[in-house]
Design brief:
By secondary structure, the protein is of the alpha/beta class. It folds into 2 domains: about 5-240 and about 380-515, Alpha/Beta hydrolase fold, catalytic domain (Rossmann fold, 3-Layer(aba) Sandwich); about 245-375, no CATH class. It is built from 15 helices and 17 strands. It has helices spanning about 5-10, 115-120, 180-195, 210-225, 245, 255-270, 280-300, 305-320, 325-330, 335-345, 375-395, 410-415, 435-445, 465-470, 500-515; strands spanning about 25, 50-55, 60-75, 80-90, 100-105, 125, 140-145, 155-160, 165, 205-210, 235, 350, 360, 420, 430, 450-455, 485-490. Strands 1, 2, 3, 4, 5, 8, 9, 10, 11, 16 and 17 form an 11-stranded mixed sheet that branches. Helix 3 (about 180-195) packs across helix 4 (about 210-225), helix 4 packs parallel to helix 13 and helix 6 crosses helix 14. The protein is globular, with a radius of gyration of 23 Å.
């Protein structure tokens, strides 16, 4: 669901594993059929399960076919290396070559697509109560009036190590678990699906959430340059694109500035400010100006900042974040989200959510310097996971005795973070930034449009980090207008917020419609 935790980010061993020696082919099967003769190969079998459904959205009935299961992936020696899990929803009837198709996934790394699938994208949606703990059954689903299936066919992707996707045969986790390995394998899956289902002529879109933004930046470039597959558009939901500007707590000053505005919106939401303005938006414009024009220059000066400049910054930090200047002073003007969320309401025994800072829960350890759990995750995950598993096995008729991996710690802890940027001369850059790949893809394909959704209460991928990356994209001026940013008064998964759901659907539908002609 989100980018890796700070502990993981700081301890990750940056290994170069690559996929340069692999190429991919894929085979799907009819329901429960095998991919190889059991007598010759006893590796796990790829299976798909097909079912017919109908949904009514905006008063219009839509018949569609759901295909859920796994695709067999092989290397260039025709040896099985993975089963790649997916769920496809395709409208029945009509000419498919003119029908848009969208591929979507979450992030992690190590997250399945169940969050997007059951939160907003699929034809069924988990019944979740916003700002409440969804941990008491029964756990139900409803027809999703906010699904995109009335505007585009949809393929939900579970990267290797998540969902039912896993390495098999000659494949190993290291072949898939890394920035570049992941980009290559996901791109290959998209190409194989398009080829096997005769969708090359269709308008194509890719949507990625959180670390899925890092993936999508690379995928857009990989598809274009390696497969000559041009995308009509990409959608980045609460995206994480750049390690250096998107991770506070790694002794780089830029992210501290980028996080400050979401610290401020969080303190505003929880009434933790000494002088709280009535409206959020004018307040955020004021904080943005402070962060850019006062805070950032002082951090840049380091020890050369004067006592007066430091005092001005400390006063502003307390004013805008609700955390005392004395605490900021001890932190040397720099604070990551873990410390902020623990400190903001420590005196009330309350911890604040990271994925969505509107959420709060009991502070389990009042002496801890950082939060020990995320109140948002514990409130949302039980209901969503239960609803998804019930839906997947009962309505889509997927038969498996394996656990569906919602999130995999094994994938995250073994992730190879290095990335070969298009401009790095083949060198693996240790701090990945696929905004570079995205800039190249936009320049090479100036008709590709970009939609970005970002939440004001997201401290996993704060909106300031997103705006910073977009403002620094090295692209020609004439295509900068290809980027649209929508902000929501919600968190990382803004589509859980009832007030944001209609906007999310309309914005996405309009984007698909306007860029499919």
């Amino acid at each position: 669901m989100t980018k890796k935790s700070l502990a993981y980010k700081l301890t990750l061993t940056l290994l170069c594993l690559g996929l340069s020696g692999l190429s991919y082919s894929a085979e799907t099967t009819s329901t429960s059929s095998t991919t190889q003769d059991k007598k010759e190969d006893k590796t796990p079998e790829a299976k798909v399960f097909t079912s017919k459904h109908q949904i009514t959205i905006d008063g219009k009935s839509l018949a569609y076919t759901a295909t859920a299961g796994t695709m067999l992936i092989k290397n260039n020696k025709d040896e099985p290396i993975a089963l790649f899990g997916f769920t496809a929803y395709v409208k029945d009837g009509g000419e498919q070559k003119n029908r848009p198709i969208m591929f979507a996934y979450n992030g992690g790394p190590g997250s399945s697509s169940a969050w997007l699938h059951m939160g907003i994208m699929g034809p069924k949606r988990a019944v979740l109560k916003d700002l409440d703990v969804n941990s008491r059954g029964p756990f139900n689903t409803v027809d999703n009036e906010f699904s995109i299936v009335d505007h585009a066919d949809l393929v939900m992707i579970d990267p290797i190590g998540t969902g039912f996707s896993r390495p098999i045969g000659k494949g190993e986790g290291k072949d898939f678990w890394g920035v570049d390995q992941d980009i290559k394998s996901v791109s290959s899956f998209i190409v194989q699906y398009v080829s096997q289902n005769n969708r090359w002529a269709s308008p194509k879109f890719v949507l990625g959430e959180s670390y899925g933004g890092m993936r999508t930046g690379g995928v857009s470039y990989e598809l274009l340059t390696h497969y000559n597959m041009a995308l009509n558009g990409i959608i980045l939901v609460s995206p994480y694109l750049d390690f250096a500007s998107g991770n506070a707590g790694i002794k780089i000053d830029t992210p501290y500035v980028n996080f400050l505005t979401t610290f401020a919106s969080t303190a505003w939401y929880h009434n933790a400010l000494a002088y709280r303005p009535a409206e959020l938006q004018p307040f955020l414009r004021e904080v943005e100006a402070f962060a850019r024009d006062v805070y950032a220059p002082v951090l840049f000066k380091g020890v050369h900042a004067s006592a007066e400049e430091r005092a001005q910054v400390l006063a502003g930090l307390e004013k805008y974040t609700g955390v005392k200047a004395s605490y900021w002073d001890k932190a040397n003007l720099r604070m990551d989200e873990g410390h902020f969320l623990q400190e903001l309401m420590r005196d009330k025994g309350i911890a604040i959510g990271r994925i969505d800072s509107r959420y709060q829960g009991p502070n389990i350890n009042g002496l801890s310097e950082t939060t020990v759990y995320d109140p948002f995750g514990s409130a949302i995950a039980p209901g969503l996971v239960a609803a998804f598993n019930s839906y997947y096995r009962q309505e889509l008729k997927v038969e498996s005795d394996r656990e569906y991996q919602l999130s995999s710690g094994e994938v995250g802890m073994n992730w190879d973070d290095r990335h070969v940027q298009p401009d790095s001369g083949g060198m693996k850059v240790p701090a990945p930034n696929t905004a570079v790949d995205l800039a190249y893809a936009m320049s090479l394909n100036p008709k590709m449009k970009v939609l970005i959704d970002s939440g004001y209460f997201d401290l996993a991928c704060p909106y300031g980090t997103v705006d910073f990356v977009v403002d620094h994209l090295d692209i020609p001026a004439n295509i900068r207008g290809n980027i649209t940013i929508e902000h929501y008064e919600a968190g990382h998964m803004m589509y859980i917020h009832p007030g944001s759901q209609p906007k999310f659907k309309k914005t996405l539908a309009d984007f698909v419609d306007s860029n499919s002609k």
